[in-house]
Amino acid sequence: MIKTPLCDLTGIEKPIFQGGMAWIADASLAAAVSNAGGLGIISAMNANADWLRNEIRDCRTRTAKPFGVNIMLQSPFADEVAQVVAEEKVPVVVTGAGNPSKYMKTWQAAGIKVIPVVSSVALARLLERVGASAIVAEGGESGGHVGDVSTMALVPQVVDAVKIPVIAAGGIADGRQMAAAFMLGACGVQVGTRFLVANECTVSDEYKKRVLKANDLSTIVTGRSINGAVRCLKTPFSQKFLRAEKEGATAEELGKMGAGSLRKAAKDGNYEEGSFMCGEVAGMVKKEQSAAEIVDDLMQGCEEALKGATKWLA
Predict the structure, then answer these.
(1) 98 vs 78, 123, 153, CA distance in Å?
(2) To 10 degrees, what angle do helices 49-62 and 27-35 make?
(3) Which of 11, 38, 86, 186 is the one with CA 20 to 30 A from 167?
(4) Structural domain tally of the chain?
(5) Do 77 and 111 form a contact (C-beta atoms < 8 A)?
(6) Which residues span the domain enclosing 195?
(7) Per residue in 239-282, pLDDT tens?
(8) CA distance 177 to 150
């Protein structure tokens, strides 16, 4: 049985976080992952305080185990959802797209563990200084908004730069990759793409179908020209967006083109107009399973990989 400092920090049994995917990571998926021993995460995305409070309370009817909320700090509702997680005493808050410093005292007073997602060493150091409990180091292989540095290069550099626990994210879909993350110095992993096809994931059937059909070359990154890089599946929408970007479309034009595209994929299953965000490991995701089966498969595969690594020693 694998147990790391991340388990002690967050009260979970297995060092696996579920990614806080907007329009996808809701109470249903979060509770299922938490019940499986990992840390399920609800995405606050651009939703308001009432929506998030309802999801938190729904999650608590489904699980008595720890779970988290992902807060996108650039959301227009960031201030009010930050207050909601404090009032509801959510065990863990994972932040992205910004610096959570202004909320740290409130969250810490509520007993919340704050774990920001970073794509650079500099940001990891800054957030450790302002009181982060741990860091998610996310490489550019991941789905959704991405940085430039790969997981293989980013994780060990962040591990060397900070003293708090580091969770590896990006490019992790099976136990071998989880074991590799541990070898890089991480004490846990965050997994998004594989949970897209969990039975308890309420994403559209079309989304699941597209992920299951993906191969190693099925994703592209758009938005680099406007500092909004996003990894998603190659679809009519993403190909059109990339063409417009290469032809010099303005940030405003591209923003209008992309508005609502993730929701169209996640909720409507609109293949022509939706943005099907997922990581490069989509080509490794081959079947729908329960969240518990996914967590157990990751853990078992990791243990086997770690035990087998000694065969290379003389």
Answers:
(1) 11, 9, 22
(2) 30
(3) 86
(4) 2
(5) no
(6) 5-201+286-308
(7) 999 999 888 888 888 888 888 899 899 999 999 999 999 999 99
(8) 13
